[in-house]
Design goal:
The complex is a heterodimer of chains A (624) and B (209). With 624 residues, chain A is mainly alpha-helical. Chain A has one domain: Cytochrome C Oxidase, Chain A (Up-down Bundle), CATH 1.20.210.10. Chain A is built from 21 helices and two strands. Chain A has a two-stranded antiparallel sheet with strand order 1-2. Chain B has a single domain, classed as Four Helix Bundle (Hemerythrin (Met), subunit A), CATH 1.20.120. The N and C termini of chain B lie far apart (58 Å). The chains are: A mainly alpha (624), B mainly alpha (209). Chains A and B meet through helix 7, helix 8, helix 9 and helix 20 of A and helix 1 and helix 5 of B.
Chain lengths: 624, 209
């Protein structure tokens, strides 16, 4: 196998990635696609900040500004943050539990391609008559009134990519429940695996309401239904409820895996076991549960009444308790540890005060009467960027540095990494801290421009300068990636020297079957335990034997492509285009036909034979 | 355990759908998927309840004008019976009796088609008699979306059952095909459970106003 895998032309590499079902390659696909959308969302953010840098600016038109802010939010949440986290989950979680792959490799690939084509469809709106312009929340009365096809792109694109995410969630849940190595009990799972587990459960239960509400929006706009049309008896508040029943858990879908990444980093670079492991697990599960109980705090000003507002206010504040448990556990993990300030650790340390600031403003908004002041101002913008950038994006950057060697076998430069950190972190606080005050002074959210002399000039300029700093930071990360890839200096199994969990015990990048022999897990932080006993390898749980592997498949790509094609038909049939209905039907035929093909064909996978595994080992011995 | 190994009724394991790791994964994954589907239908039910009888003007038909319990009763009986027959099919699957399993699955499919026929008649009736169309009011949109989503699930479930029956007609039962039959029948049960709620929430509650 290995000899075939080594020398490849460009075309065969592309074909390999188009058909791969290997979780490590799918992780790389998620990283590339998510990274691309992250840059796109970042450029949109830069345009927003340039427009708002000075009063009375007309750098972009008001209509284009609405499209920019909508696409910035939608892209960053659905097409950047979540896929990048799914990428890390794919790359690391199966290794952490000692599995050879995820439970459903085929569905894993399908999930990626659905996300990819959904995101592609959404972004094609820029070239096909205008992007969505009703905000990432796309509240129904506004989105029904939006002209052109922007909102249709939003609805169909998110629907397709949402199916992909849902499949990813189910896949990870089954993987973690069924595929753990011998001895890997639930309470020995690394925290990143735990947070992946809880986030996947949130995906499973939060995405269906979004699916339903997007279907209703689609039906209203494309097929003349009346869910949100008040004149025909409809009710626009239904959209808000469903959107936030999805939207609030979504926040935890993003932040919990980020917590997981930081937990791994804190214990690795403090050279200590994570403080209060079981309370961390408890807090994760509790946050996941409470995440479903608080959606109406986004709707305090809708007029649900004081009783509903009070209940949701109290529930919201309750979430501060498990989150506080986590913060103190991280601090106490560092306490007395022998701390190494590597780039991931710097991000982790910087994350604590940043995220706490975002949490505190969250509690402020959780007080329903006070929220009437903050609602729809820049205070809200500041708050959620503090939790999403100060929490999730810092975790993504930290995770990129931390897991890069495991995924690609080379170390990102620490020097450039510190440069990236400096510009990004300073830029982040410069951009968003002052927005709290802009909001309190009355600057409304999503506003295209403002008048001079209202006390908003300096604040907005500072904020825009901060955004430029963040941009420089991200560019330096790209430079770092290019330099590292060109140098291509290979590293060993445990490049940080202090790896604690199973993934650091195997080669970087791992062989495609991950573990030649499934490991026997004897406690929390199994690789650390082995190292403390003077061993460099894991205790095997089985003799070397044949390994069963799944076959690659092009079908996931085709299934997703079918929906992509069908979406165009669904969208243009309202313009009475003659080709639209045939395209809609043709796309669905491709999708369901590919599903049927998958179902009918026998696909038993293949075996790597014992002899090949032993040979491969010898090869490596010669090389080293 | 090899997935395509040949079995006899004596060597056939207790729970063939979960005897391999792949089967176990599918079994759990499908239950989780049904959990997500439950939330999906819960959202549709919530929407329906919120928009029930919400019409733009008084001449539009309301729930109590539309529904006729005898037809719905027949549909309920057809679908509940089809759930029972799919249980028989799984009983024979567990006893390694492929022919009887196929027979009971065929009966399940026929009953499901009967249900689908009634539903098409019902929708057609509302359309022509009451001018109750998908676009006529918020109530009608919510009604057709909820019941129509269920109907689409019935169509998908029937196609799935037929597909696994045809696909495996020559292959017979082994540990690779057993989970496929099992999951299709599990899906069929889920569709049935959803209908019980539609029967109660839409039709029975519709009659009492």
């Amino acid at each position: 196998m290995s000899t075939i895998a080594q020398k490849r032309g460009f075309a065969s590499t592309v074909w390999d990635y188009l058909t791969t079902v290997d979780h490590k390659k799918i992780a790389i696909l998620y990283l590339i696609a998510g990274g691309f959308f992250f840059l796109l969302g970042g450029i949109e953010a830069m345009l927003i900040r340039i427009q708002l840098a000075v009063p009375n600016n007309d750098f972009v038109s008001a209509g284009f500004f609405n499209e920019l802010l909508t696409m910035h939010g939608t892209t960053m949440i659905f097409l950047a943050a979540m896929p990048l986290l799914l990428g890390f989950m794919n790359a690391i979680m199966p290794l952490q539990i000692g599995a050879r792959d995820v439970a459903f490799p085929f569905i894993n690939a399908l999930g990626f391609w659905l996300f990819f084509f959904g995101g592609l469809f959404l972004n094609l709106s820029w070239f096909l008559g205008g992007a969505p312009d009703a905000g990432w929340t796309s509240y129904a009365s506004l989105s029904l009134a939006s002209e052109g096809h922007g909102i249709d792109f939003y609805a169909l694109g998110l629907q397709i990519s949402g199916f992909g995410t849902l499949m990813g969630g189910i896949n990870f849940l089954v993987t973690i429940i069924n595929m753990r190595a011998p001895g890997m009990t639930y309470m020995r799972m690394p925290l990143f695996t735990w947070t992946t587990f809880v986030a996947s459960a949130l995906i499973l239960f939060a995405f269906p309401p979004l699916t339903v509400s997007i279907f209703m929006l689609m039906f209203d706009r494309l097929f003349g239904a009346n869910f949100f049309n008040v004149a025909a008896g409809g009710n626009t508040i239904i959209w808000e409820h469903f959107f936030w029943i999805f939207g609030h858990p979504e926040v935890y879908i993003l932040i919990l895996p980020a917590f997981g990444i930081f937990s791994e980093i804190f214990s690795t670079f403090s050279r200590k076991r994570l403080f209060g492991y079981s309370s961390m697990v408890f807090a994760t599960v509790l946050i996941g549960f409470l995440g479903f109980m608080v959606w109406a705090h986004h709707m305090f000003t809708v007029g649900l009444g004081p009783v509903a507002n009070a209940i949701f206010a109290v529930a919201t504040m309750a979430i501060a308790v498990p989150t506080g448990i986590k913060i103190f556990n991280w601090l106490l993990t560092m306490w007395g540890g022998s701390i190494q300030f590597t780039v991931p650790m710097i991000y982790a340390v910087a994350f604590i005060p940043s995220f706490v600031a975002g949490g505190v403003t969250g509690i402020m908004q959780g007080a329903a009467p006070a929220d009437y002041q903050y609602h729809d101002t820049y205070f809200i913008v500041a708050h959620f960027h503090y939790v999403i950038v100060g929490g999730v994006v810092l975790a993504l950057l930290a995770g990129t540095h931390f897991y890069w060697p495991k995924m690609f076998g080379t170390m990102l430069s620490e020097k450039i990494g510190k440069f990236t950190f400096f510009f990004f972190f300073v830029g982040f606080h410069l951009t968003f801290f002052i927005q709290h005050f802009l909001g309190l002074m009355g600057m409304p959210r999503r506003v295209w421009t403002f008048l001079p002399g209202q006390g908003l000039d300096t604040g907005n300029l500072v904020s825009s300068i901060g955004a430029a700093f963040m941009f420089v930071g991200i560019v330096s990360l790209l430079v770092n990636i290019v330099i590292t890839s060109v140098k291509n200096e290979k590293v060993g199994n445990d490049p940080w020297g202090d790896g604690r969990t199973l993934e650091w015990a195997i080669a970087s990048p791992p062989p495609f079957y991950n573990f030649k022999q499934l490991p026997l897990v004897r406690g929390l932080d199994p690789y650390w335990l082995e190292k403390m006993e003077g061993k460099q390898t894991l205790t095997p749980a089985e003799p070397i034997g044949d390994i069963h592997m799944p076959n690659g498949s092009f079908v996931p790509f085709v299934i997703s492509l079918g929906l992509f094609i069908a979406a165009f038909g669904a969208m243009y049939q309202i313009d009475d285009k003659a080709w639209a209905i045939p395209v809609l039907i043709g796309g669905l035929v491709i999708t369901f036909g590919a599903m049927a093909y998958r179902s009918i064909k026998d696909d038993h996978g293949f075996h790597i034979h014992k002899e090949d595994l032993i040979d491969e080992n010898d090869d490596k011995g010669v090389k080293a | 355990m090899e997935a395509e190994e040949k079995y006899t009724p004596q060597t056939w394991p207790e729970s063939p759908e979960r005897a391999t790791l792949e089967g176990k994964n599918k079994f759990l994954g499908f239950w989780l998927f049904l959990g997500g589907e439950t939330v999906l239908f819960a959202s549709l039910f919530a929407t329906y309840i919120a928009l029930k009888d919400k019409v733009p003007s008084p001449e539009h038909a309301l729930a109590k004008d539309l529904y006729e319990l005898p037809l719905v009763f027949v549909m309920t009986m057809l679908l509940l019976t089809s759930s029972l027959t799919s249980v028989y099919a799984m009983y024979h699957m567990k006893n390694f009796n492929f022919k009887k399993m196929q027979l009971w699955l065929l009966i399940t499919v026929i009953l499901g088609l009967g249900f689908l026929g009634c539903e098409i008649y019902e929708f057609n009736h509302y359309y022509h008699e009451y001018n109750h169309t998908f676009t006529s009011s918020a109530f009608s949109s919510a009604f057709y979306t909820l019941v129509g989503f269920h109907g689409a699930h019935v169509i998908f479930g029937l196609s799935w059952l037929v597909l696994v029956m045809v696909r495996n007609a020559k292959r017979g039962l082994n540990l690779y095909t057993a989970p496929k039959f099992y999951l299709a029948s599990l899906y069929w049960h889920f569709i049935d459970v959803v209908w019980v709620f539609i029967f109660t929430v839409v039709y029975l509650m519709g009659m009492v106003g």
